[in-house]
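Exercise 7b. Backbone tokens:
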């Protein structure tokens, strides 16, 4: 994943730079909105890369699960930055329309045509089927960015032949809407992880566990990041079982959890309300 995010980060900074130059030369509101879009994406992708590197670093003992939470922080920052960019773009587009600012489409069209294939290659290079939430957020925005940049090119092409400044403002508003629409699902997913929300099929998981051991109770499951799901399970035993028997039971319960993608399980065996043995993985 790191190599893909490095490429994506470099590509986004290049795209931002060239679109910003085109926005300054053309005075196009849609190009200004798109360049701001690319700026926030560049910052977000860069932070996603830094987070992915930090997540695998040895963590101090005060951080029980290392830096995995940074992945989710990067997703929230990504979405929040894009919403901030949407508000800024809406303000700029409105102010320029009210002021009747002119648009010189030629230079903007030239830089947009250069940026589009770079963005398309970035979209193709990223893993669209990844389970990693940080990279998945980058993929979603890369696809949306390609679409909005195509809108900018169409807008500037029309302005090149027809002096309809209103269409430039409408395009800027459309890009603003795309900002928000593509940010909300990723932000919701990141917030769900940060709030330790249990999976929707937790009832099904509990039933599968109880099929292995009827004493299962107080099952707690949460997602630390896109590649670490954690669970704690309490198992009430009637007593009389040996440690080797409990070990077999523990392995069976962990196998069930692994089948649901839960890769860090702690199991506590109890007898008469007191802990008789602990098994953790």
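Sequence design result:
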């Amino acid at each position: 994943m790191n190599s893909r995010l490095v490429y994506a980060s470099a590509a986004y900074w290049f795209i931002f730079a060239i679109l910003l130059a085109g926005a300054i030369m053309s005075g196009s509101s849609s190009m200004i909105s798109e360049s701001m879009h690319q700026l926030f994406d560049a910052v977000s992708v860069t932070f996603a890369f830094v987070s992915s590197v930090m997540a695998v670093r040895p963590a101090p003992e005060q951080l029980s699960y290392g830096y995995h939470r940074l992945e989710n922080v990067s997703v929230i920052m990504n979405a929040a930055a894009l919403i901030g960019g949407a508000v800024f773009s809406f303000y700029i587009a409105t102010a320029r329309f009210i002021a009747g600012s002119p648009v010189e489409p030629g230079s903007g069209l030239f830089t947009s045509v250069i940026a589009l294939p770079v963005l398309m290659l970035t979209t193709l290079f990223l893993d669209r089927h990844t389970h990693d939430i940080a990279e998945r957020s980058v993929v979603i925005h890369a696809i949306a960015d390609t679409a909005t940049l195509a809108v900018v090119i169409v807008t500037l092409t029309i302005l090149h032949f027809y002096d309809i400044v209103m269409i430039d403002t409408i395009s800027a508003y459309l890009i603003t809407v795309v900002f928000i629409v593509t940010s909300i699902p990723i932000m919701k997913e990141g917030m769900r992880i940060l709030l330790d929300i249990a999976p929707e099929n937790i009832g099904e998981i509990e039933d599968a566990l109880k099929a292995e051991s009827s004493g299962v109770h107080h099952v707690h499951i949460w997602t630390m990041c896109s590649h670490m799901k954690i669970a704690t399970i309490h198992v009430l035993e009637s007593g009389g079982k040996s440690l080797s028997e409990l070990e077999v039971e523990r392995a069976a319960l962990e196998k069930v959890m692994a089948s649901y993608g839960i890769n860090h399980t702690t199991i506590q065996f109890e007898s008469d309300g007191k802990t008789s043995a602990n098994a953790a993985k």
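Instructor comment: The longest strand covers residues 216-225. The beta strands are 216-225, 228-237, 264-271, 274-280.
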